[in-house]
């Protein structure tokens, strides 16, 4: 028993692991909450685009000594505007416009990183630096995470109606365009929240996998809002422990754990699992054969 307790507590003898755990729990929870709406609306590709497109905004904010969140929001909305401008139903479809805009802005961010003199390694913006989270980083993550979570909770009814039926939302006096803009702003803020944990490259995984996993486990949205954060938190804790004892990338292991959980649910979900459905179909056949 003592050995198990030591196994669980040993990593947190180090301050950097305690901060890493706190940052992971906050970012995982916020990303998981937002992912429920992104999955329902079908904004997975948009989440990928915005999370990558904020990179130059974050770098420019660093250069000019401004908050990362400000640069991220500006470039998040710039990306959406550019996608709308490039999109041409007759020639350039939305998926192509998204791919063009987010890869171009992401490339701009990489170029800015390469030419920006800095005493710190800006590559952590791309790949994350979970074990290097400082006290000030943790405060920023906590503040941004709290802002996103509070707005999502306060506006959950309006956002849910927008996700399911924007026409009905408009009919009862809501502004679908404003709600969409609100989600995009929260998406940019969430990208910054998770940036320190997994980096820009893997943020999209944290924004999609928990919501997709929860969607396979329940058809009720209010349950999704509970299941998705639970999946993300459990995956985050397991991923951190495995990364510590196996000496692997902590951010990568957190996302890999989420992916493994999704794979298990995809195969064995009681209602929507592939293996479960196959077994359900095979049962009547077996009963007929034995009759």
TrEMBL record:
Q: Which domain of life is it from?
A: Bacteria
For this UniProt record, the keywords arranged alphabetically read as follows: Membrane, Transmembrane, Transmembrane helix, Transport
Q: Where are the transmembrane segments?
A: 21-46, 58-84, 96-118, 138-155, 167-189, 195-217, 224-244, 256-279
Provide the family line.
Belongs to the ABC-3 integral membrane protein family.
Q: What processes in GO biological process is this protein linked to?
A: cellular response to iron ion; response to zinc ion; transmembrane transport
GO cellular component terms given for this protein: ATP-binding cassette (ABC) transporter complex
Q: State the annotated membrane topology for this chain.
A: Multi-pass membrane protein
Could you identify this protein by its name? Metal ABC transporter permease
| Subcellular location(s) per record | Cell membrane; Membrane
